[in-house]
Amino acid sequence: MTDSTQLSIAANWIRQSSSVLIASGAGLSASAVNPQYGVGLDYTSVAAFRLLYPRMTQVSTMRCMYDAIGKHDWSPELMWGYLFTHVDKCRFNWGPTSVYQDLKQILSNKPMDSFVITTNADGMFEQNKFDMTRFLSTQGDYSLLQCLKPCSRLSFYEARPYIEQSVPHVHPQTMEVPSKYIPRCPRCGGPMFFCVRGGEWFIESAFDDQRHRYHDFVHRAVHKKNELFTIIEIGVGFNTPSVLRWPMDQLVSDLKHVRLIRINMHAPDVPVHARKENRAIGFDGDAAQIIRQLRDMVIAGKV
Ligand SMILES: [Zn+2]
């Protein structure tokens, strides 16, 4: 089958479904090109890092954004100088991008039950004005800070005020923030970090409401056995496959009314049985291009 035949089939599934789930990983934001910078939010790209943070290549050993994850060999002043700058730029000010807008149009093409689940803590769905009552961020969110102890299950806080206070004071050459802007827990005075799944300290309950709504959605979708339930999975690799990739494989393998559209540049394989039964399709091209074509076909309805 040609790619365009497969795209037609995939678009048809979406059009016929009463439930659609978007499951997204790092690959989706990597294809979300910000028009001002001309790059996507690609955590593994050396070029994007140089462009977004030219000073960081001089004052640290970092080569790409991913290097900040679990990094220990930097001073708290540099760590917070970089992280506050990064979160300000990417979590709050990346803005709308065409790939996310295209996805939103796919979901709003007709009334249906839809949901978004993502491993990205970058708030891109919020920045693109998706319905946040139909959203689960499984690995946390850079919009929150939390106590690292943590001293209480409620010790998580909006990061934005801390960021607005400190970013103007990040030194443009050293990228360091003065020590007084290093965040401390308002409850216990201890160190803080972003509320993301970085260790045992992660306050997962900050996302309980999102998780309950996700489970309710899946429950509804899997029980409507006479109606189609399509999963559009984008850019989900093998960093944490047990969070999204394997559960999506499981859903399409177990349930005959589920369809899986997997968009993944490096690993587009889908479960063999589901593929043989024409219920799962994998695309290995650029996510932004495939989603644009899919959007056009879904909206045109000529499939
Ligand atoms: Zn605390």
From TrEMBL:
<keyword id="KW-0520">NAD</keyword>
<feature type="domain" description="Deacetylase sirtuin-type">
    <location>
        <begin position="1"/>
        <end position="303"/>
    </location>
</feature>
<keyword id="KW-0479">Metal-binding</keyword>
<feature type="binding site">
    <location>
        <position position="151"/>
    </location>
    <ligand>
        <name>Zn(2+)</name>
    </ligand>
</feature>
<feature type="binding site">
    <location>
        <position position="188"/>
    </location>
    <ligand>
        <name>Zn(2+)</name>
    </ligand>
</feature>
<feature type="binding site">
    <location>
        <position position="147"/>
    </location>
    <ligand>
        <name>Zn(2+)</name>
    </ligand>
</feature>
<keyword id="KW-0862">Zinc</keyword>
<dbReference type="InterPro" id="IPR026590">
    <property type="entry name" value="Ssirtuin_cat_dom"/>
</dbReference>
<protein>
    <recommendedName>
        <fullName>Deacetylase sirtuin-type domain-containing protein</fullName>
    </recommendedName>
</protein>
<dbReference type="InterPro" id="IPR029035">
    <property type="entry name" value="DHS-like_NAD/FAD-binding_dom"/>
</dbReference>
<dbReference type="GO" id="GO:0046872">
    <property type="term" value="F:metal ion binding"/>
</dbReference>
<feature type="binding site">
    <location>
        <position position="185"/>
    </location>
    <ligand>
        <name>Zn(2+)</name>
    </ligand>
</feature>
